[in-house]
Amino acid sequence: MSGKVLLVDDEAHITRNLEKVIPWDMLGLTVAGVAKNGVEALELMEQGPIDLLLCDIRMPVMDGLELVRHIRERQIPCDIIMLSGYQDFTYTRAAIQYGVNDYILKPIPYDELTGVIARIMASQRNKQKQKLEEKQKLGRMIDLASEKILYDIIMDYTDVTADNWLLTGDEQQLKEQQFVLIVLDLDVSSEKTKDWRDWSDKERKLWNFAVCNVLREKLHLQSLQHAVIQIRDGEWCVLIEVDKNIPYDPVQVKEWTNTLLTTVSSHVKLNLFAGIYREFASVADLSSAYKLVQQGMQLTPVHDVIAVYPSGRTITSKADQAFWDTAEKIIGAVKRGDTITVDFELQSVTLLLQQMNEPSLGRVKPLLHFFVLHLMREMKEMGVFSREQEDMLWRRLDRRFGIKDLLSVIREVTLAVSEKSMDKKKQSERSMAEARSFLDRNLYRDLCVEETATHVGLSTSYFSLLFKQTFGETFIEYVTRQRMERAKAMLADTQKSVAQIAKEVGYAERRYFTKVFMKYTGDNPTDYRSKHQDGEQEHGSDLKQ
Questions:
Q1: What is the DSSP string of 439-465?
Q2: How many CB atoms lie within 10 A of CB 238?
């Protein structure tokens, strides 16, 4: 794309020569206009943007220096080369003060001028490229931040009320959006997934990462605004942003889902199942929508590769729902290390089974099997099992066995957690203390929850849960709050520039930092500094008096 140049000189033969002699096409420029003085030049510049201005100093009506002063005062973005027949240093100094890029003496050395223009335009292109890269980097940073916030919302760790100061700038738009929600899951009990079970933790982590990348790339190629959020090992939630003005199209959503499954199968060589939420979900509905889809997938022993939940044809019985609720209570209690609740709920399950007749027991057995799988996957995220214990439990689950055996496995799992609960609690406290220390040392960097979780040796999902339980806020809320508090102190106590402070607290882009800071404090950084530094000076004067 060509840039535009404006030629300003009261001598017509000079502007004609400039138009003819300078190889504008080769320099990537077109002559947008010619003016005889500064007033005409300003009128032309108001009609459209100019990339480069070649301007004489001595002209009637408005001379070149006055023109440049107006351009800089109005903050019109363009590079400027001054042309002059006067070698007086006063002119040169004035031109430098106004930020002129170069100063060429007449008679014009056209070869030299061509070289100067080429250098300036190359610098412009480099700056534009750098701005584009920064914009793309910022856009990706916002996308990642949005994904982390969405994870916290789905897991019900945070809310989307007006009081949530974290939702600022581009993230603020999350509250206005609606999504298609798709849960992709690996059937860990399938014969086809036995190889996956044998993989090391490192191999599984790489595989999970590969699936996320494949999904994101496919959605990007289809020009769909999206978020891909790994919930746990082998389970993802895909959110596709949709226009509020269009109706829900189940056929289109199934096509998207089938494309994602086919892409993962083709590139990663593993087959997943998909559960689709049956309507659009607002941000406030994401947590409940996700739980309904996950519950539907867990409570349906035999289901299609792609299924919609809640399904109109699927009626969840009271017994089915009771088992699901019990599973969630047990898993929650295990994560908290609450062995009393675990024992109580297991006794409730046993009592419920004793009261059932034979046909009911036949229906409950597959539910118990899914319950065990669900429990094992959650415990795997917590790092409760050794590899030997996990392999032993998988071997037992692969066999056909009765309800008593299933209950025995559940008890084994919960007993393993109970035995480790005290050690686990101490270890968790140490992990969170180390996480806090790591974050405080690295606030200046582009931190992510995955890196911090890996640093303390925990899975991302368990780390997120533990972090919320320990500090009472999510990872992003904590990091952002610490950055803002550090920025407040630096603004009040130092003379560092806002851009420098932004970088030192982990924001590569000043504008984004300013948005977050204003949402957090109610002031922009400059006003905050003025209030607090002026306040300190007044306080010092009072003490002297």
A1: HHH-TTS---HHHHHHHTT--HHHHHH
A2: 24
User: How far apart are the C-alpha atoms of 274 and 279, rounded to whole Å?
Assistant: 15
The DSSP secondary structure of 500-513, one letter per residue, reads HHHHHTT-S-HHHH
**Helical axes 358-382 vs 387-398, angle rounded to 10°:** 160
Does residue 398 carry a pLDDT above 70?
Answer: no
- Report domain extents, the chain: 3-108, 177-312, 317-435, 436-544
Per-residue model confidence (pLDDT) at position 539: 47
CATH fold of 317-435: Zinc Finger, Delta Prime; domain 3 (1.20.272)
The pTM for the full model equals 0.59
> Tokens 């400039």 appear where?
18
CATH top-level class of 436-544? mainly alpha
Rounded Cα distance between 14 and 256, Å, is 62
pLDDT at 402 over 80: no
Superfamily of domain 3-108: Response regulator (3.40.50.2300)
- Which are the contacts of 409, defined by CB distance < 8 A and separation ≥ 6? 372, 393, 396, 397
d(CA 432, CA 467): 7
**Rounded to an integer, what distance in angstroms lies between the CA atom of residue 505 and that of residue 515?**
14
Whether the per-residue pLDDT at 486 is higher than 70: the answer is yes
Rounded to whole angstroms, the Cα distance separating 153 from 143 reads: 15
Supply the pLDDT for residue 268: 87
The number of beta carbons lying within 10 Å of the beta carbon of residue 311 is 14
Class of domain 177-312: alpha beta
Residue with tokens 């003085």: 37
Copy the structure tokens of residue 269: 């060589």
The two tokens of residue 173 are: 């738009």
The mean pLDDT value for 485-503 works out to: 91
CB neighbours of residue 28 within 10 Å:
16
Phi-psi region of 523 (alpha: psi -120 to 50; beta: other; left: phi over 0): beta
